[in-house]
């Protein structure tokens, strides 16, 4: 009897079997990412917004998403990168449904010049064209927008704190108040020093308000812009981007801190306002306040009445205000109040979030 040696499958057969096995795996099986909380998606993203999808364009293995103007912008790195996702579900593609409302958590890749969207970074359809809204693992659908607003408000506060001026900051470069200089009214002059204190050097003589950075504090009344106050010394700046200097207390007149400058004046919110209104100064859940249903970029010259100001911890300045339905200049009747709340006095760039009409209507 002839014994035959049983051989195992050949190497080509094994490789062929493995390739056949891999070919049966669905593409979605290759995309593995743990679900995270809404807050974690927010913190990891470079940009967060809620927007309706207008259309998409396919280029190679990628899909470019074209959104309409955002319904709400919660976090923005101020870029204009195209929103891109891969086509394959194996690469964690985001579903494309024109007309649907999306929650977008974009990751900016400046090298590739794209803002990536993927199911792993949380980007998804929130309100499909048909059907019920969709939520997150830790947030039911009906609370998604309010929770995003709260996260955006906290993010904005952190950025404001990093930029808002301190009254006693030697390096301060943001407005903290306005100052009258009596000497100019009589044709006199004042000297600016290199620092606050009589031991510092006086380096220049100023003959008129036009030689300083200034704003009107009243009808055709220019006052010097003040950037810090230390021991009664006022930090000013020469006009046309000139050097900073310090004015002695004996040369200063009426000082109007920004805390009081806008209270009960003909005031307005400007483009530095972040668009949120808080129930208390530095507390509670903020509310995004739309301007007659228009997008955020319309936040220009919104009529308000500032009722009071408060400093939290002696540093962070807040205003309690009324947002008015119309400007007092539009008619004889007093405008109705749309809503009342609190806002930080400064924007994320360190500039005042509101100002006033020094010359009236």
Question: What is this entry, summarized?
Answer:
With 361 residues, the protein is of the alpha+beta class. The chain contains five helices and 23 strands. The longest helix is centred in the middle third of the chain and has 20 residues, at 144-163.
Structure in words:
The N terminus is likely disordered. This protein has 3 domains: 130 residues, Beta Barrel (OB fold (Dihydrolipoamide Acetyltransferase, E2P)), CATH 2.40.50.120; 84 residues, Roll (SH3 type barrels), CATH 2.30.30.40; 95 residues, no CATH class. The strands form 6 sheets. Strands 1-2-4-6-5 form a 5-stranded mixed β-barrel. The chain has 361 residues and is an alpha+beta fold. The protein contains 5 helices and 23 strands.
- Count of beta strands: 23
Low-confidence stretches: 1-29, 291-298
Distance between the termini: 116 Å
Kindly state the mean pLDDT as a whole number? 87
**CATH class (first level) name of the largest domain:** Mainly Beta
Within the CATH hierarchy, at the fold level, what is the topology of the largest domain?
A: OB fold (Dihydrolipoamide Acetyltransferase, E2P)
Structural class: alpha+beta
Instruction: Please tell me how large the radius of gyration is.
Output: 29 Å
Helix segment count? Answer: 5
Query: Order of SSEs, N→C?
Result: HHEEEEEEEHEHEEEEEEEEHEEEEEEE
- The CATH architecture of the largest domain comes to Beta Barrel
| Overall morphology | elongated
Largest β-sheet summary:
5 strands, mixed, barrel
The percent range for helix content is 10-25%
């Amino acid at each position: 009897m002839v014994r035959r040696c049983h051989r195992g499958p050949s190497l080509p057969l094994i490789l062929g079997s493995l390739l056949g096995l891999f070919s049966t795996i669905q593409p979605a099986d290759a995309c593995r990412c743990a679900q995270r909380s809404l807050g974690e998606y927010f913190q990891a993203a470079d940009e967060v917004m809620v927007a309706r999808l207008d259309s998409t364009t396919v280029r190679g293995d990628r899909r470019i998403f074209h959104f309409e103007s955002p319904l709400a912008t919660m976090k923005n790195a101020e870029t204009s990168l195209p929103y891109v996702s891969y086509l394959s579900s194996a690469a964690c593609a985001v579903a494309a449904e024109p007309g649907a409302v999306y929650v977008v958590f974009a990751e900016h890749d400046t090298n590739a010049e794209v803002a990536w969207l993927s199911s792993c970074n949380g980007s998804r359809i929130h309100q499909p064209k048909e059907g019920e809204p969709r939520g997150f693992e830790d947030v039911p659908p009906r609370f998604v927008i309010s929770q995003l607003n709260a996260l955006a408000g906290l993010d904005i506060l952190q950025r404001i704190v990093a930029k808002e001026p301190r009254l006693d900051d030697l390096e301060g470069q943001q407005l903290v108040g306005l100052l009258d200089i009596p000497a100019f009214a009589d044709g006199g002059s004042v000297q600016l020093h290199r620092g606050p204190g009589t031991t510092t050097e006086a380096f220049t003589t100023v003959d008129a308000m036009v030689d300083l950075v200034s704003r009107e504090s009243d009808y055709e009344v220019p006052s010097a812009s003040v950037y810090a106050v230390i021991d009664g010394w006022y930090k000013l700046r020469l006009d046309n981007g000139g050097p900073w200097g310090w004015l002695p207390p004996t040369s200063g007149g009426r000082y109007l801190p920004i805390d009081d400058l806008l209270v009960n004046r003909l005031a307005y919110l400007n483009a530095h306002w972040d668009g949120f209104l808080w129930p208390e100064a530095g507390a509670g859940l903020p509310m995004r306040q739309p301007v007659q249903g228009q997008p955020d970029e319309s936040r220009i010259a919104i009529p308000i009445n500032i009722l009071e100001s408060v400093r939290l911890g002696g540093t962070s300045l807040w205003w309690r205000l009324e947002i008015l339905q119309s400007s007092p200049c539009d008619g004889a009747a007093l405008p109705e109040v749309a809503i009342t709340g609190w806002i930080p006095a400064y924007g994320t760039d360190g500039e005042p979030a509101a100002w006033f009409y020094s010359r009236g209507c």
